[in-house]
Specification:
- By secondary structure, the chain is α/β, with parallel strands linked by helices.
- 46% of the residues lie in helices and 17% in strands.
- The chain folds into 2 domains: 3-217, Spore Coat Polysaccharide Biosynthesis Protein SpsA, Chain A (Alpha-Beta Complex), CATH 3.90.550; 219-317, no CATH class.
- The chain has helices at residues 13-24, 44-54, 70-80, 99-109, 147-152, 168-174, 185-196, 221-235, 244-270, 277-294, 301-308, 311-317, and strands spanning 3-9, 32-37, 59-63, 85-90, 94-95, 115-123, 129-132, 165-167, 199-210.
- Helix 1 links the parallel strand 1 and strand 2 (32-37).
- Helix 9 (244-270) packs antiparallel against helix 10 and helix 11 runs antiparallel to helix 12.
- It starts with a strand and ends with a helix.
């Protein structure tokens, strides 16, 4: 099995060395390590060139002249990959030494599977681990046909798998990432990928994800809702051949997930100083109505208080 590993790089020079070293330390040597830098001005290109000089033939750098975004960065890496399988690590994350070996072994044990995914650690910006994605007491993650769970995000904490080891030809058939998407490009790909791929799970944390409070987490919740509506419409046709009950289940769960952002958007609207008091309340009421329709258990009495009472009074009553 020839495994291509790609690393995305953008202004992560402080962490990039750890990401590259974690791939070099794998107990199963990768076929190649492709590092795509998206026009970083922080010294990352010089660091990557140094690694390429010290590991000729193994580390293959790609440098963007202008910033193209994460989707295009991933696409360029995948177009350059020459292995049978591919996986990745972002420039601020780390693989644990047995990541490739254990996921490759899982694929060998499950010949019908096209991809293997595993548990992971979450870590703080300083590298300290906090918890894992799959925790004691969680339901076992799905295996085999995981299309519906992926589309509906029926995974612990609504967070789907990452850094999967997948057949490159299957990924090509799925179509790679959509460069038109500013965020959720990985979720969009995994919906399409799991429609044609079968999965197996390795019950061990094999990589570490750094949670820095950047990227998607900084996007306004009302914009997340718009993007998620568009994403559902884009991929809805993939549900056409599913059982009607399964289609309804996926839509219900997807809309319940959106409701968590609708509640955040409601509270953000209440504090939007650019709007008049009545317009703030109207915008919040529309978002809370969405929550009440699709995930009423998420809506609280305090949310209702906030619509009619001053913020300090509402907070006192919650």
């Amino acid at each position: 099995m020839k495994i291509s590993v790609y690393i995305t790089s953008y202004n992560q020079c402080d962490f990039l060395r750890e990401a590259v070293d974690s791939v070099l330390a794998q107990t199963l040597r990768p076929h190649e390590i492709i590092i795509v830098d998206d026009a970083s001005p922080d010294g990352s290109p010089e660091l990557i060139r140094d690694y390429a000089r010290r590991h000729p033939g193994l580390i293959k750098p790609i440098f963007h002249a202008t910033n193209c975004g994460v989707a295009r960065t991933r696409i360029d890496a995948l177009h350059a990959a020459t292995g049978d399988y591919v996986t990745y690590v972002d420039g601020d994350d780390r693989m644990l030494p047995e990541k490739l070996e254990r996921e490759a072994a899982a694929l060998a044990e499950h010949p019908a599977a096209d991809l293997a995914y595993s548990n992971h650690y979450n870590m703080l910006p300083d590298g300290r681990r906090t918890d894992t994605w799959i925790r004691e007491g969680d339901e076992p993650p799905p295996e085999g046909d995981v299309f519906a769970p992926t589309f509906a995000r029926n995974f612990p904490r609504r967070d789907i798998f990452r850094m999967e080891l997948v057949r490159l030809d299957t990924l090509r058939r799925a179509g790679f990432h959509d460069p038109a998407l500013p965020v959720f490009e990985d979720f969009d790909l995994r919906i399409r990928l799991t429609k044609i791929a079968r999965a197996c799970y390795v019950n061990a944390p094999l990589f570490e994800i750094r949670r820095q409070g950047t990227g998607l987490s900084t996007l306004r919740p009302d914009l997340k809702m718009v993007l998620l509506r568009d994403l559902y419409a884009k991929n809805r046709a993939l549900l056409a051949d599913c059982d009607p009950g399964l289609r309804r289940h996926v839509r219900r769960r997807y809309w319940q997930w959106m409701a968590t952002f609708a509640r955040q958007a409601g509270h953000a609207a209440l504090h939007d100083s650019a709007r008049s008091f009545p317009r703030r309340r109207l915008a919040a009421a529309m978002h809370f109505a969405f929550v009440g329709r699709h995930a009423p258990d998420v809506l609280t009495l305090g949310d209702c208080y906030c619509l009619f009472l001053p913020a300090r009074t509402a907070e006192h009553l919650i």
